[in-house]
Amino acid sequence: MSEKEVKPWDMFNKNMKRVPSQVAIDRLTICQTCEFFRSSIKQCTQCGCIMTQKTKLADASCPIHKWNAYKE
Questions:
Q1: Do residues 27 and 65 lie in contact, with contact meaning Cβ atoms separated by under 8 Å?
Q2: pTM for the complete prediction?
Q3: Residue 21: pLDDT over 70
Q4: What does R_g of the chain's alpha carbons equal in angstroms?
Q5: What is the 3-state secondary structure (H, E, C) of the chain?
Q6: Is the residue at 37 inside a domain?
Q7: Domain range for residue 22?
Q8: Residue 59: which residues within 8 A CB-CB, separation 6 or more?
Q9: Who has the most CB within 10 Å: 14, 17, 34, 49?
């Protein structure tokens, strides 16, 4: 089963599921240690997303497989 690709504008969609706050924190912590994370703007150079937002979306996943979509 393939995961749904998350788009940057999905953050504005109220129907998109969100993760618990601790999951978002854990994901962002992983991103902050990654060589592709631009800390000055909190952006991933692999997917182009602003990670403070992407890490909150349940269907989101890391493009280089450091974290996966959230399954309850």
A1: no
A2: 0.86
A3: yes
A4: 11
A5: CCCCCCCHHHHHCCCCCECCHHHHHHHHHHHHCCCCEECCCCEECCCCCEHHHHCCECCCCCCCCCCCCCCC
A6: yes
A7: 16-63
A8: 3, 4, 6, 10, 16, 17, 69, 70
A9: 49
Q: Given pLDDT bands bounded at 50, 70 and 90, which one contains residue 1?
A: very low
| Burial of 60 (C-beta count, 10 Å sphere; 0-12/13-18/19+) | buried
Lowest mean pLDDT among 13-17, 25-29, 33-37, 66-70: 13-17
If one counts the domains in the chain, the total is 1
Query: Which residue bears the tokens 């996966």?
Result: 68
Q: Is residue 46 in some structural domain?
A: yes
| Interior/surface letters 62-72, b for 16+ CB within 10 angstroms, e for the rest | beeeebeebee
